[in-house]
Design a protein that fits this description.
Helix content is 69%, strand content 0%. By secondary structure, the chain is an all-alpha fold. The protein has a single domain, classed as Amino acid/polyamine transporter I (Up-down Bundle), CATH 1.20.1740.10.
């Protein structure tokens, strides 16, 4: 609810439309989202990545609806951390925040590994470790000197990505039509092949395919600047997942038809580049490679900046040692110590963890947060509704409950290594919060996501 501005105090203006939010969400997710995980997910799904992307889309759309509704009530930074803290208890919110910290730490690792692998495909004689060190160095250098991608740069990147995606789609359609005629464009095999379909494999693949949608919740951070946020924010978050899901499904569907046998890819991590090479030759191969590198470096740059500033907020509130983590470099106005620490962790992670494992670990924290948001929506609107507000069975209970169950199923299907590593991180968080709150009896330590 807006308050009357009687003293000319600056405030955010509600000027954004639902389509502004949708565009922003697509920028966050990126049109090439499924490209990086294509080969690995195809293998996990036994060739059914198209189905895995669609199943993940259902879970994300249900969860996106919950995010949007909670953002309309609590239009502040922190998303899942804030919603769980307000709907349930600050201690539970802090544990969800701890899971979100894991994501902030893993995002730069994921976005160093993939461009390093891509560079390795382009220049095979240079060791992977050298490329990982170079990409990490570039990201850390840009963070230390205070350079960051602006909204205009993101729009330019989105335009380039869109051109490459359109080039792939048109080239793939032409390739299939020229090879098999119009009938070559239509097949149920990418969605269901009875000779290879396995429900357990599909569940595991869906837990990785969900990475396609990571970032949709960023739409909710603009809730204070949206016209009619109670309707626009939930609708926009769902539309973002729907549009990106349909586009991603088309991309992987055509990729499957172009290269039906996933076991023959030269390299699973960069498999989609081989699909591009088959339909568009060297030009499309290199265009996709450059686009992937630039996109990952941009995301990695933002990821390191976000993680460093999150650690700064935790240091400022003495959740972490203030002496080290709350220091700002006077010349460049960045938390230099935090950036260097994140950079070191990123390089170590890129050299010791596979792309597949890092992506799964990212989803471990993300889906804990998603489950927390769905439960918060039930608590906020059905269990404890505002005075005078009637409960609505479908939107207040059924939709978020199904969102929770879908997310639980995907989270439960994560491979054991990701669950062990994520579980260890979460156990450390529980122990830390228990010590800081004297057995959960005092106030929970604050996590400030406001600058992310």
């Amino acid at each position: 609810m807006e308050t009357t501005n009687t003293n000319n105090t600056p405030r955010l203006r509600r000027v954004l439309t639902i389509w502004d939010l949708v565009f922003y969400g697509i920028v966050l997710i990126q049109p090439i989202a499924p490209v990086g995980i294509y080969g690995i997910t195809q293998k996990l799904a036994h060739g059914h990545m198209s189905t895995a992307v669609l199943v993940a889309m259902v879970a994300m759309m249900l969860t996106a609806f919950s995010y949007g509704r909670m953002a309309s009530v609590y239009p502040s930074a922190g998303s899942a951390y804030t919603y769980v803290s307000r709907a349930f208890h600050p201690h539970l919110g802090t544990l969800i925040g701890w899971a979100m910290v894991l994501d902030y730490l893993v995002i730069p690792i994921v976005n160093v590994i993939y461009p390093a692998l891509t560079f390795k495909r382009l220049f095979p004689h240079v060791p992977y470790a050298a490329w990982a060190a170079l990409v990490t160095g570039v990201i850390i250098f840009l963070n230390l000197v205070g350079i960051r991608f602006t909204a205009r740069a993101n729009e330019t990147l989105l335009a380039v990505e869109s051109l490459v995606v359109v080039a792939f789609l048109s080239s793939a359609v032409y390739f299939l039509f020229h090879l098999h005629g119009s009938g070559g464009l239509l097949s149920l095999q990418p969605f269901y092949d009875p000779s290879t379909f396995n429900f357990g494999a599909l569940r595991t693949a869906t837990s990785l395919a969900a990475l396609t949608y990571i970032g949709f919740d960023g739409v909710t951070t603009l809730a204070e600047e949206v016209q009619n946020p109670k309707r626009s924010v939930p609708a926009a978050t769902v539309l973002v997942c729907l549009i990106c899901g349909v586009l991603s499904t088309i991309e992987v569907y055509l990729g499957h038809l172009v290269w039906p046998n996933y076991s023959t890819f030269p390299n699973l991590e960069t498999a989609f580049m081989d699909v591009c090479l088959r339909v568009g030759g060297a030009v499309l191969f290199h265009a996709m490679a450059v686009t992937l590198i630039v996109a990952c470096i941009g995301t990695g740059l933002a990821g390191v900046a976000g993680a460093a500033r999150l650690l700064y907020g935790m240091g400022r509130d003495n959740v972490l040692p203030r002496k080290y983590f709350a220091r700002i470099d006077a010349k460049h106005n960045v938390p230099m110590f935090n950036v260097i620490i994140i950079g070191a962790l990123t390089l170590v992670g890129a050299l010791t963890i596979s792309y597949e494992r890092s992506a799964e670990l990212l989803n471990f924290g993300a889906f804990l947060a998603f489950m927390g948001v769905n439960l918060s929506c039930i608590q906020q609107f059905y269990v404890r509704p505002q005075t005078g507000r009637k409960r609505r069975l479908l939107t207040d209970l059924v939709v978020p409950a199904f969102g929770f169950l879908f997310c639980l199923g995907i989270w439960w299907s994560l491979p054991l290594p990701a669950k062990w590593a994520g579980g260890a991180w979460f156990a450390i968080g529980v122990s830390y919060v228990a010590i800081r709150t004297k057995g959960f009896r005092t106030k929970a330590p604050k996590m400030d996501f406001s600058e992310q």
